[in-house]
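F.,

This is the one I mentioned.
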């Protein structure tokens, strides 16, 4: 599992980890049944406290994305598209804010951002709910 924590980000490390795991699950980089690294190992790899990784895992478990099976470890339980609506909306809000901040850095206009998002949407097939 390839994740990285940005120490300069205003987003808390546990939230960065949650977002990156969600993105990996959505992209198929973490398929259903995939075992995640133990809390202590991932914390050591990322230079985080064990509690930070445990909090991220718990957040994803509550959302139903991960499942802990005792001593066997933590596994991907289901795909992101089945995520509860409130968690999905919060995730999209944060990612949208990141896009808008990045666009501002390069001097993009609102029309530029809208055009880019519309172009990206045409590349993906979404189900209409």
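My design for it:
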């Amino acid at each position: 599992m390839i994740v990285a924590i940005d120490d300069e980000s205003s987003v808390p490390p546990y939230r960065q980890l949650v977002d990156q795991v969600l993105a990996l699950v959505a992209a198929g980089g973490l398929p259903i049944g995939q075992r995640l690294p133990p809390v202590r190992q991932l914390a050591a790899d990322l230079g985080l406290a064990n509690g930070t990784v445990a909090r991220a895992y718990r957040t994803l478990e509550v959302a139903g994305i991960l499942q802990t099976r005792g001593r066997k470890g933590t596994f991907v339980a289901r795909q992101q598209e089945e995520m509860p609506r409130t968690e999905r909306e919060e995730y999209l809000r944060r990612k949208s804010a990141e896009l808008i901040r990045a666009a501002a850095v390069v001097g993009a206009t609102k029309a530029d951002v809208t055009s880019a998002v519309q172009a990206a949407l045409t590349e993906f097939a979404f189900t209409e709910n």
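Helices lie at 13-26, 39-46, 50-62, 85-105, 110-122.

Talk soon.
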